[in-house]
Write a structure and sequence with these properties.
about 160 residues; about 30% helix; 8 strands; alpha+beta
């Protein structure tokens, strides 16, 4: 399945005011009944093994620097998707993420359209607070641009 990088919808800016980074990826799906939560669960709860290994490496590197690391990975709960707290949710949109002293982020998973044109869109917004947050964002960006499309393909 093909994942496309698309322009980020500027109306999403209210979900993280002052965000300095935004990107958006989209994939088509034939599943007319797919909700945003179901799409997010498929993306985050069963990532390809290479992504899971990268995330564990990331956690080991950043924990001593004071960046948050997930306390759980596979949990399904009304208030979270894997390691990410859910901030807002409708059947069409799920907003997850958290704030840290170094950076805040949001991931927005949206479903739209109907079969055969049903689509899932994943948008990432990041607001850095200091040099460590900016350095972290710069370091993970090449991986982020590979990880998000791979996670969308899990749908």
């Amino acid at each position: 399945m093909t994942v496309h990088a698309i322009a980020t919808d500027t109306s999403l800016g209210h979900l993280l005011p002052g965000a300095q980074f935004a990107d958006t990826f989209r994939i088509a799906t034939g599943n007319a009944g797919l909700t945003a939560r179901q799409a997010a669960e498929r993306m985050f709860l069963d990532p390809p093994p290479w992504i899971d290994r990268l995330m564990r490496l990331r956690d080991a590197i950043v924990a001593p620097l004071g960046l948050k690391t997930p306390s759980h990975r596979k949990a399904i709960a009304a208030n979270s998707i894997g390691p990410f707290p859910v901030i807002a949710e409708t059947p069409q949109r799920l907003v997850a993420g958290f704030g840290d002293r170094h950076l805040d982020f949001r991931v927005i998973v949206e479903v739209s359209g109907s079969t055969p044109d049903r689509q899932v869109t994943a948008t990432t917004l990041v607001k850095t607070h200091n040099l460590l947050g900016r350095a972290y964002l710069a370091a993970i960006m090449p991986f982020h641009r590979m990880i998000v499309p791979a996670m969308l393909r899990q749908i």
